[in-house]
Amino acid sequence: MNPLELAGARPGPAFRVTFDGRPVEALPGQTVAAVLWSAGVTSWRSTRGEGRPRGVFCGIGVCFDCLVTVNGRPSQRACLVPVRPGDEIGTQDGTGHGEMGTQDGTAHGDMDAQDDTGRRDGGTQGATAQGEISARGGTGRGDIAAQDGTGPEDFGTQGATGQGAIGPQHGTGDREARHAD
C-alpha cells in the first residue's frame, strides 16, 4: 500500500522551484532538503577552505551542514526551511556572504561580524555568537565553548544572550537551553 494512503495524507498539488536555475518539482510542506533529495541532489554546499561537498547531516537544524541560498538569502538551513512556489534555491560556497558580508551591508559569518548579533560560521567580538566557532567575548554558543572559560560542554552562554533554534537563553550555560530568568 502507498505510504500516503496509510497516513491519510493528501498533499496539495505539486509546484515548481528552481535549484541552480533548473526546475525541480516540490510538494506543499516539503523542506528544501526534501525537495533536493527527491530530485537526486545530495550536496548543495561546499565548505570554506577545502571546498568539500555538504548536504544534510543531522536533519534537525543543529549541525548547519545543509546551508543553502534561498531567494538570495544565504545560510538558510535546508532541513528546516519549507519551500514555496517559485523559490529560487542555490548552491552555497562557504558562508555564502563573499568577502563583504551580506547584501544589506551587515556582516554575519566567518570571523567578520562586528556587531553583537554574530551568527552562523563565526563568532563576534561582542556579546553573542552561534556557529562553528564561538565568541571571543563574554558568551559563546557553538561547536567550541566560549574562549573566556564560560559555556560548559558544546553549547551554552554565560552573560548576555545566546540565540538558537530553541530561542533566547539568558545566562544559562546549559546544554539543554533552560532559562534562568
Can you tell me about this structure?
This protein is mainly β. It folds into two domains: 12-93, Roll (Ubiquitin-like (UB roll)), CATH 3.10.20; 109-162, no CATH class. It has two helices and eight strands. The protein has helices at 3-7, 32-38; strands at 15-19, 22-26, 45-46, 53-54, 67-70, 73-77, 88-90, 92-93. It has a five-stranded mixed sheet with strand order 2-1-7-5-6, with helices on one face. Strands 4-3-8 form a three-stranded mixed sheet, with no helix packed on it. It is globular. The termini are far apart. 33% of the residues are buried.
Primary descriptors:
globular, three-stranded mixed sheet, mainly beta, 8 strands, 7% helix, Ubiquitin-like (UB roll)
The percent of residues in helical segments reads under 10%
What's the main sheet like?
5 strands, mixed
Number of helices: 2
Instruction: Using the coordinates above, name the CATH class of the largest domain.
Output: Alpha Beta
Q: Report the β-strand fraction as a percent range.
A: 15-25%
Arrangement of strands in the largest sheet: 2-1-7-5-6
